[in-house]
Design goal:
Blueprint lengths: L1 H9 L2 H6 L19 H10 L5 H13 L5 H6 L2 H7 L6 H17 L3 H4 L5 H5 L6 H12 L8 H11 L5 H11 L4 H17 L26
Length: about 220
């Protein structure tokens, strides 16, 4: 079933693009909304929470113009200056504090490439503002670590398509057990599942008739899944 899902996702790359994912080279950073570096991905991961991607993209572009789109630069910025730079995102004061703290930790630990590793996952999860989905997404997209992100979207979509109630961890394990351990496939499948979850597979009143996975879905809408 997982490869049938993947086939439909791959056939709908334009849909993924509309949802903010750029299907690209497996090692490219552009998967993540067309961003240009691991630093930009990490910065955006903090800014995008509870904020529209379009707003975050504009903030990243502004930081890029000013040469502030680097984690080591963020670590050196006074907090009030960082707050002012990201003021247009929701909860900017909290996000500025969390982003600066993350940047300082990363800078003290040899930079993103050295810090964002599977071996450091527990340390990453100890940082304020980083949950399991964010940690795994950073590992996969910012440092090309072969780990599949668990998420509520993944749990919900797979539970309904397979007609099997699953936890987030069980859904993650299902993917890692059944999908070839390949960086491109991991990124493509995650981008597809998140896009389907956001566009169609709502918790309440999902748009089943419009969903691209409708031909495969074994479950008529069920609130318990």
């Amino acid at each position: 079933m997982i490869y049938e899902i993947l086939k439909i996702i791959d056939e709908n790359r334009e849909f993924l693009k509309k949802m903010g994912w750029i299907v690209s080279d497996p090692y490219s950073f552009e998967w993540w909304g067309g961003l240009k570096s691991a630093d930009e991905i990490a910065i955006s991961a903090f800014l995008v929470q509870m904020t529209k991607w379009e707003t975050v993209a504009k903030v990243i572009e502004n930081l890029r113009r000013k040469g502030l789109n680097y984690i080591d630069k963020i670590a050196e910025l006074p907090l009030p200056v960082l707050e002012d730079q990201i003021r247009s995102v929701n909860f900017y004061k909290t996000k500025a504090r969390r982003l600066k703290n993350f940047s300082e930790i990363v800078s003290k630990n040899g930079g993103l490439k050295n810090f964002l590793t599977v071996e450091n996952r527990d340390k990453i999860l100890e940082i304020e503002g980083i949950g399991e989905e964010t940690a795994d997404s950073l590992l996969l997209f910012a440092n090309n670590q072969l780990v599949f992100p668990q998420s509520e979207y993944l749990r919900r979509v797979l539970s309904r398509v397979l007609n099997k109630k699953m936890s987030k961890k069980e859904a993650k394990d299902y993917v890692e057990d059944n999908l070839k351990k390949d960086l491109f496939l991991y990124k493509l499948f995650h981008a597809g599942i998140v896009s389907i979850g956001k566009a169609f597979c709502y918790l309440n009143k999902p748009k089943c008739d419009k969903c691209i996975l409708k031909p495969l879905c074994r479950n008529k809408y069920n609130e318990t899944l």
